[in-house]
Amino acid sequence: MLEPLTEGEAAGARDRRAPGLRPLGRPVRVAVVGAGYVARFHLEILRRLPGIEVVAVMDVDRARAERIARQFGVTATATSVEELPALGVDVAHVLTPPDLHVPVTRRLLELGIGAFVEKPVALDPEAARELGRLAAERELPLGVNHNNLYQPAFARLLSEVRAGRVGRVEHVRVCLAVPLAQFKAGDFSHWMFRAPENIIFEQATHPLSQLHALVGPVREATTTLLGTRELAPGQVFHDRWLIAARAERGTAEIYLAFGQSFERTTLEVLGSDGAIEADLSHGLVSWEEKTPWLEFWNSFLAGWRRGGALRRGALDRLARYGRFTLGVGRRDDLYFAGMRESVAAFYTALAAGAPLPVDAEQAAQVLDWCEVAASEARRQHLRQGPIAVPAPAPVPGPARPGEVVVLGGSGFIGRRVITALLSRGLPVTAVVRRTHALPNELSQPAGRGELRLLPGRLEDGAALAAAFTGAKTVVHLATGNGETWEEVERAMVRGSVAAAEAALAAGVQRFVYVSSIAALYAGADCGKSVIDDGMETDPRPEGRDLYSQGKIAAEKALFALYRERGLPLVVVRPGVVLGPGGPLEHGGLGYWARDNHCIGWGNGDNPLPVVTADDVADALARAVTYEGNGLDGKALNLCTRAPLSARQLVSELARSTGRSLHFHPRPLWLSQTLEIGKWLVKVAGRRPGVRFPSYRDLKSRALTPPFSSETAREVLGWQPVEEREAFLDNAVRADGREDRGERRS
Predict the structure, then answer these.
(1) Looking at 428-567, which runs of residues are DSSP E strands?
(2) Sheet holding 142-145, edge to edge
(3) CB distance 336 to 344 below 8 Å
(4) 714, exposed or middle or buried, with CB in 10 Å at 0-12, 13-18, 19+?
(5) Is the pTM of this model over 0.90?
(6) How many Cα neighbours within 13 Å face the side chain of 179?
(7) Of 51-65, 229-243, 445-459, which range is least confident?
(8) What is the pLDDT of residues 456-475, one digit of tens each?
């Protein structure tokens, strides 16, 4: 552990004056506050900056702080900012959710610690200015990470504009059309969905900070909301915005679109003597200037020079990627490069005692831009009046007769399972990570049964014990994934074992674990003409992907509990699950190089073991209500005989959605050859943790042999939809724009 400062050192630290922290005679001591996704970028950058020592990671979840601290070699962790002064922290990076930026930053400044705050520094301009005044009073640095100011393409554009290439800036056009991963997952619990204006502070701050750098503070603006959807009862989201504005040094129009299937991020400056455009998605800059030539030649030069600039930019990006991949160049992807330069600029200014790149007042002026959009969202909300929000589901008390506990009930299959159970009149307790931003099936449950919600996670033993006590059945749908085996093993394997042990302690009569056919080996050389229910998990899990390894290990651990301690276990293995609300680019169909280009696991002509999500839910409900002993210790496949291949399904998806979807057949040997090529490049670049690509995993992904589901059919009376046209109607054609969250007002 890092030794605390002596009282004299602590007093010296309090006496420092900002912004110049450099005359310390030692590195600047830095803490990261908040151990979420963005913290990894900050830590990777900080550990490479000279004169910086990362001394602590602080997060209210100590386990999360410890995991990321171990990954980056940080010795100290904390759960409160109050612990940071004793560790000698000079500057803290505030990486908490935006609604916590102000209280956390204020407390850091009160403790004598400077701050570098992720955007947005606050949720209203005056709060940002108040923090600025406090920092000035305490003579402490307060910088804001507007990293998109340093995005390579924008930095190039800004440099050209300031050099006078396009003359006087007159107008700026901004287009930000981006996908949001949460729409595909159906998870709207993130902060940016909790109020209609939050998306502006979360996403639009980036282009608005760039706009501010070009034309200065906003003077007047008009905002039009072009698209609105209701994510859940009472949860409104505006997905398309148009802002027309007059600023100090020019005018602007801003188009914002969130949750788009095609990404387009551009910024165009129209000047008195030319125009320049940055394609921020691809890191490209092109421009057009006046020439002294005749019109026909002027037009030719405009296209020729613009095309040349784009080609040179594309080749430069390709060369940078190649150098990094081969280990002879630094990481330079666009997001990381902007983040790196922003952090470096802050510490360079500190070292020189120079003005900070983005201080509180500049950040407040960007927030003024945010306000012109956010205020319109608030006004519309007031005009429409309050939306009727259903009363919260009852919190669990003593278990009711026949209580069914569902883990992972807010997911694609889980919410259908809850609906199926409620329709059978069963009392259901759903253990969910959050009780807000729930899907309609949970916020407006339909059926004769009653639904109760309990916040909790697999690793929360107290929550599981409270939910399982007195329950008759547990349906375990919760899953977890990760980028390393450690993460997968912790979430998928140990979490499932913990749930099973809690069920044993509570005397649960049936524990239904929802696994996957990914736990089986389904290559053409598996030695079986039909993969039946009794097939064991893949005996060579080391040759499979992390998800499959996790499912295999979880099944083995649960079956061990069945044999050794009498866990009343039933394992269910759904096939390729399709249906409204599910992912369009399903990995069972192939590798989706883009969300509209599917590369087949082979030629894609063999019928796949598909099944509708509703039929999976029906089978699970039947397993819950089954009263015999024909399920104990059994594994059930849930697959249909619908005669549909990957190629046919992608084609049908294209027709039913109107999307430009393409299936690209590729022989497995060719895919393996390409994977080996990637592996060789990574090895040459000395990438850590690189595994040789597994041909076995590729062969299994092809799902060549047919699957039988006789146990579900014979024991449970399961009768899934299998006729081709009926299956397509239920699983593919029904998955229209509204079901995938693409509805527009």
Answers:
(1) 428-432, 451-455, 473-476, 510-514
(2) 76-78, 52-58, 28-33, 91-94, 114-118, 142-145
(3) no
(4) exposed
(5) no
(6) 12
(7) 445-459
(8) 888 778 888 888 999 999 99
